[in-house]
Amino acid sequence: MEDDVIRVFLVDDQELVRAGFTMLVDSQADMRVVGQAGDGGEALEKIQVTACDVVLMDVRMPRLDGVEATRRLQSLPEAPRVIVLTTFDLDEYAFAAIKAGASGFLLKNTPPADLLNAIRQVHSGDAVVSPSTTRRLLEHFAGALPDEQTERPDLADLTAREREVLVEVARGLSNTEIARLFTLSEATVKTHIGRILAKTGLRDRVALVVLGYETGLVRPTK
C-alpha cells in the first residue's frame, strides 16, 4: 500500500550520486524517492513543500552544507529524520550534524543492503549509528565538548536507575549488555530508555550518547 511506503529525499551536490541512490531506493517495494536537491538551501525549499520521511543528507555541499540544513530542518512542524552521509568515518561534519539533530550517519561506501536497512531503522524511530561508533566520534572530537559539567535541568527528572542506564548508553553498551549489567530484562531496559527519551525530549539513542558526554555523565577516555 502507498501509505506504507517510506518517502526518501536525497540531498547531494553530485548528480551521479543522487542517480545511484535513486535507483537503489526505487528498487525497493517499501520505499521511493520523492525528491532531491543539490545543496542544503535547495533541500530546505523543496522539503517544505514535499512530504518525506527520511532525508539522505550529504555534509559537504555549496551554498548551505548538510550540517546547517539538518539544523534548520529540525524547526519544521513535522521534521523528517536525517541520515548524514560522509566520506570519512571520523568526520567533524558528521559529529556536528548529529548534534544538529540527525538520527545518525553512514559512510558513502556503505553496502547497499546496509543503507536500505538504515533507512528502515530510522523510519521506525531508531538510530542508525551504533553506540560504539558514536562514542568513537565523541572521543575523537572531545575538544569540542564542554570541559565543565553542564547539568541540564531535564536530567533532574530522571530516576536513579534511569541515570545509570543513560550512563551505560553513553558508554556504548547495547541493551543486552545493559540488561546483563543491572540484571534486568531487555524489555525493561527498552522501557527505561523510552522514558529517558521522553523526559529529555530527545529523539533517539544517538542523542542520548551526545547528552551523556555534554552533561559530564561520561568523560571521553584518554
UniProtKB/TrEMBL annotation:
Pfam families: GerE, Response_reg
Keywords, comma-separated and alphabetical: DNA-binding, Phosphoprotein, Transcription, Transcription regulation
Signal sequence extent: none
Matches recorded under PROSITE patterns: HTH_LUXR_1, HTH_LUXR_2, RESPONSE_REGULATORY
InterPro entries, sorted: CheY-like_superfamily, NreC/VraR/RcsB-like_REC, Sig_transdc_resp-reg_C-effctor, Sig_transdc_resp-reg_receiver, Tscrpt_reg_LuxR_C, WalR-like
Superkingdom of source: Bacteria
Bilayer-crossing regions: none
Domain Response regulatory: 7-123
Residues modified as 4-aspartylphosphate: D58
HTH luxR-type domain location: 151-216
Protein known as: LuxR family two component transcriptional regulator
Species per Swiss-Prot/TrEMBL record: Kribbella pratensis
